Amino acid sequence: MLNTDIIQKEFPQAEGLKYLNHAAVAPWPKRTKDAVVAFAHENITYGASRYHLFNEKEDQLRRQLQVLINAPSINDIALLKNTSEALSVVAAGIKWKTGDNVVTSAEEFPSNWIPWDAQIVHGVSLKKVDIRNERPEQVLMDACDKRTRVLTVSSVQFSSGIRLDLEVLGDFCKANGILFCVDAIQSIGAHAMDVQKIQADLVMADGHKWMLGPEGLALFYSNAAIRDELNLYQYGWHMTSTPDDYDITSWQPATSAKRFEPGSNNLLGIHALSASLSLIEELGMAAIEKELAVKVSYLMDKLTKLDRVSLITPTNPRQRAGIVAFQVAGADLRELHKRLLEDRVICAYRGGAIRFSPHYYTSMQCLDNSLDVLSVNI
Q1: Nearest Cα residue to 295 out of 237, 235, 245, 365
Q2: Percent of the chain, pLDDT > 70?
């Protein structure tokens, strides 16, 4: 059971606002705002004279992320600008051979197909498969062949809300010598992630959705066993094995995931995301996941009772996370989305559907009020 006192304190949102858009950009908790203010005060008052405190906070964030995804080591965690950068680091870093292919779903966010499609210059082809069926994992696995180098998927699809069984896919990739890459931006913070259990080689996720952090800072996990197989194409002082030695005349890349961080990191974002993750730690990921599932089930049940509404997101709890996507027969969904926004139901239009994405702290009253606005407008 979540601590309601903590939730009320941390999310003092504007009266009348019905925020159902965590799959896009999430509001911050109060503690995150406080951390940014404190960081600004530190800079105004002391400048960089206590820079060691900033380094300690960066190390703390890496440890928080390591625990959150159950990475084997803090050395497996890199801090990059966003999910797109992390995916580009992987796609551009693989030593491709002409005829290689990459398998993904046909409804990936552009971040998880453009970097792969760009490898056509190396003779690489991208296979996009339709996963809107009862066995999406099987369709993905069937699309792989002896020339498949990478299976890359979103843990949860941004438009339909389909959640894949990553353990099944990880087992398959391990057995067939295929790199397993997971864009986890739509699940980390909403659903438990264990990179060892799913046998992922690479996982990335920006913090501004379900982790309730800022834009401009992303987790990038790389399995130590394959890390040095990726060519580097970004260079700088920070990614060397001796980043504190500014007088070096030769260098080697760090053996840790820091090899993917060419320069100074986003310290403002680091302070903010660390604060946001401290709330997850305080409440517990298991409790958060359970509470979000209650909110999603409630929304889906109520939506199915509305005239002309049909769900796009699977009703099977094992195949969904925090996204609820639906259509309304005969309605202009773009116009409906506009009216919802005007009535302060903050949601999204994605993939030909309206997308509601509450979080664990979203009140039942907020859900009921949003459903009332929807029913009036359809």
Answers
A1: 365
A2: 100
